[in-house]
Amino acid sequence: MGKPSILSAFKAVKFLFQKPVTLRYPFEQKEPAPRYRGFHLNDWDKCTGCGNCADICPNEAITMVEAPEVEPKPGEKNERPQLDYGRCCFCGLCVDICPPGSLRLSRDYFHIHFDTNTFVFLPKDEAKDEETFLPPEEYSILQASLTHRRKDYEGFSSHPDFTLFEPERVPMPQVSPEERRLSFVEQVLGYSREEARREAARCLECKLCEDACPAHLKISDYIRAIYEDRPDEALRKIFEDNPIPAICGRICMRHCETACSLSIRGEPLAIRWLKRYTSDSIVDYREALELQPAPTTGKTVAVVGAGPSGLSVAHFLALKGHKAVVYDALPGGGGMMRIGPPAYRLPVESIDKDVAYTASLGVEFRFNTKVGTDVLFEDLLNDYDAVYLGIGTTSSRSTRVKNAEKCHLALDFLQRNKIGRPVEVGKHIIVIGGGNVAMDVAREALRLQHIQRPGQETKTMTVSLEDWDEMPATEDEIEEAKEEGVEFNPAWGPKEVVLDDSGEVKGLACKKVKSVFDEAGRFSPSFYEDQVMLLEGDMIIEAIGQGPDFSFIPDAMMENVEFTERRKVKVDEDGRTTLPKVFAGGDIVNVNLDAVTAIADAKVAAEGIDRLLSSES
Amino acid sequence: MIPGSQPTDTDSERELELYFGPQHLGMVGNFSITLKVRGDRIVEATANPGYLHRGFEKLMEYRTWMQNFPLVCRVNVVEPDSMEMIYAMGVEKLAGLEVPERAQYIRSIYLELARVGSHLFGLWAYSNMLGFDTPAQWAMYHRDLVLDLFEELTGGRVYHIYLWPGGVRRDFPEGFKDRIVETLHSIGGCVPDYDSTFFNNRLFHQRAHGIAKISQERAKALGATGQVLRATGMRYDIRKVEPYAAYDQVDWEVPTREEGDAYSRIWVIRDEMIESVHMIFKLLDAMPGGEVYNRVPNPFKWEIPPGETYVRCESSRGELGLYMVSDGGDKPYRVHFRTPSYPHGLTILEELLKGASIADVGNTMISLYIVAPEIDR
Amino acid sequence: MISSLKSSLESTFKDVAVGEPEAGRLSVLAPKDSLPVVLRYLKENGLDHLALLSCVDWPERGKFEVVYVLSCYMPSNTDYASEQRLHVFVKAEIPREHPALQSVIDVFENAEPYEREIHELFGVHFAGHPRLIPLFLEREYEIPPFRKDFDTRQYVAETFDPIPPVDE
Lengths: 617, 377, 168
Known about the structure:
The complex is a heterotrimer.
Chain A lengths: L39 E3 L9 H5 L5 E5 L12 E6 L8 H5 L5 E3 L14 E2 L11 E2 L14 E2 L26 H4 L12 H8 L7 H5 L6 H9 L3 H9 L5 H7 L3 H5 L2 H4 L5 H11 L3 H5 L10 E5 L3 H12 L3 E5 L8 H4 L8 H13 L3 E3 L10 H7 L2 E4 L5 E2 L11 E2 H10 L8 E5 L3 H17 L6 E6 L10 H10 L2 E4 L1 E8 L5 E13 L5 E14 L2 E4 L3 E2 L7 H4 L23 E3 L10 H22 L1
Parallel strand pairs in A: 6-7, 8-9, 8-11, 9-10, 11-22, 13-20, 14-15, 14-20, 15-16
Antiparallel strand pairs in A: 1-4, 2-3, 3-5, 12-21, 17-18, 18-19
Helix pairs in contact in A: 4-6, 4-11, 6-7, 6-11, 7-11, 8-11, 13-21, 17-18, 18-19
Chain B lengths: L8 H5 L1 E6 L11 E7 L2 E8 L7 H5 L8 H4 L7 H16 L5 H30 L2 H22 L8 E2 L2 E2 L7 H13 L2 H9 L2 H7 L7 H6 L4 H5 L7 H4 L20 H25 L20 E9 L2 E9 L7 E5 L2 H13 L7 H7 L4 H5 L1
Antiparallel strand pairs in B: 1-2, 2-3, 4-5, 6-7, 7-8
Chain C lengths: L1 H11 L4 E6 L2 E5 L5 H10 L4 E10 L4 E9 L15 E9 L4 E3 L8 H12 L2 E3 L24 H9 L8
Parallel strand pairs in C: 2-5, 6-7
Antiparallel strand pairs in C: 1-2, 3-4, 4-5
């Protein structure tokens, strides 16, 4: 090192003549970086009130507070995060965990106030709060505060590659479309233990799903139990609200997954498959559950229909010590589940597993017994302390177009294929309908064609009034049907069934649909009568919906049954109909028409029946 | 001495106890030293830390693996980035996480920027303490330019909260490379000014030469690392000894000096800063594309298998280590940071102050490059 | 170097258990009375850097685990050898009731503040330490605060809640 000089320092004198680098604040300001982590912004329209931000906050600076102006609905709570800037450290973990990406940080960072309470506040953004968020010309740095902020001044915000949640689902192993269309083998193979745990680990435990589930299953609890590798504990949690997990684990309409936070910017947690994993991984429910029915009360309840609601009501009643006797015309339990969902979605063995457990609690099943013919409804009313109607919708509707009597009906078709002798199918099959039942019918028909007519040129088509965007079937079903080779003709309505000279089905004449619903949103299809086409086919199956069959109830009594505006059986908050000591639930009561809502009805009715029976003694 | 009283032999020999800090003009940071002095010679010095003891290690036992990430940087305010690095390394080691290659480069660049920023801050502290106000002001300004870079990359100026387990939190913004180069060139262009006003200034030489001198032997015995050790001639640098991030991907040198005194330590810091700038240029050139973050498990359900680890990195002050134990839970079971200022500020400081003059206390302390929060944790 | 060190440790000390939990790291469990000799032996065999002295509380086991993390300074001034990446954890388990150990300051001088810290935060006594006085804390606590049975949340609630209002 050279000889240090005492004079060298004077070279710094030259800086005297340079422009100063300091900013003359507040006249000169420094713009914060685009990623700046300042005060919060929250888009109230996107925010679901899930509370993950409050859970991740290392400083407990975020509290979820009730927002009365927000209407709670499935997938959204009426809560919004409130920040305490006495605690916040602006780390932005809340931004990175936020499933909808509504919570962001802005580039504002000024707040000076004598009132410490103003440091606690409910972030919004310019969409909801025009008074606070001002355009540049109205903004002044001298007034800057939490209530005087700049518009369009977003800083650190969520990025899909850096979220703290995992947006992608563990893929479910499935049989390929080419293979599965050749047989009725179950399409979904189910998660392995490792896959189930990995999928369960994605759950953020915000419980939006639990509010959305009609039966309010304790979803985050059982998902955690699966994650902790305790499937028996998971099963116990499920059974608190749902006694048919093997069935629901396969065919549930999963309102939960629609509400799942993860679905907003990714794939929802596979809640249904995890339920299925739970029930499949437990060989013997009884060992895992250790449920003990209450001491017997001596009361008896007749349950009409062994479908999801009938099974559930019998299960809950048995736990309360009441004797439940279930009547069903079919040879086994499950009701519509037994005949409706094709075997590739819901094998009969899975149904029997759930039914057998309910039977083990002391529930008596009388199968092959049709109420109204084999046993009279009046007798049930006399012999039992209460009667529960879980009869579902069992009669298929017809289009009633010309020659419609030549068509097959969906339920008969499905029932025969699943638990009877399979129908002999044609070469070109036309399925009328765009709902899930129509998908089931079409996919079954296609399989039967492959089985019965190997090597032949065959075709399965669907015709539906609804266009792609309004088709009531779930996206998955439509997608899988397409994969297997089903052809779609959306926005066409049946005009007449065309017969050939010998009176055999030749095809379906269709007319183009103008609109399906009227201005009020009611079902009222209108057509372009001049746009017609002929779909050629030798077999037509109608799958346009089902209705209930009340013929077992004597007419005199039927007059006293009240219905709602939507033609549903009217029940009170106890599930009680307008007939004395008759309760009801399931598809004849609710408009969702699915298994989990039927279970929810059953839970309500079981409580109601229990109250009635307890008050009598 | 009481005015009017007769001086006695014992008066000049009398031992006084002097409290140096935490509120003392010569003290940088919340730290205090109790000095036993005779005349202006220090007979014994007792380091008195604890003013910044926040119990981070205990607090971390109450927070989940992810929640600790914004916390660790606060252990050392001057260079929070190494704390983030060491925590990420510890978690990645315990959980067996992989980090994408580009993230490793970004980490190295980020840490070197932090080193430059931290050294500029140290330069401010040291030159300011010696009365060299002019270069001190420059250093502060240049550190601010580095903070601007951090702000653009991470959204924060002081606590960046950027380097997290699994990689880094965001990729470089558009054009960021150019801005790094530009900023470092403008800082580097001032090195001759720093040299002429400070490093080559004879006043600095006279003020620092021979002060707080420690031999390599004693430095090793007392657990010294970083500049304190490198100023005694040992090229001990964790970036070389046990390379992490992308430090083994480019060529660079470890600057050393032989004398072991305050003067050589400050020179090591200067040379290191320049080496860091060169290293950043090389890293920027060699940086590959690709991902910068491998997603870590759901923070609410993240459990790390039982185990313990000791990981270390080279912070701007020396060997920064982390001993971390997991009991298989969602939170660390035990965390213990080995901070470089701990031996420097306690054992070594006490030894070097023995026999020094009161005027050299600040000089000794700052040349040992002590940051009090790092000691207290 | 690792394997030779492992075998020489095992042959020199009959009462230590040596493990290699991962590449480049040895874990040596020694009875507490042998600690100073084991550490001295390791120091003389190249592990001359006591990087950290730590303590872990295992209340279920009724033990404190005292951990000495050793690594190597540079053997020469030029080369970076892979041996330098070696870490050794020397551990001793001591009972939580009246925990005491022999100070190792005469082996590693920089153990001095670490021992003070562990004494203060865990209540472990180090016999032969010249000044086992508090390092960080302002006062003594009934339960040393880094022990697992010291509940920080409860302490905070009792000491600082409720937050007094700030006067305008």
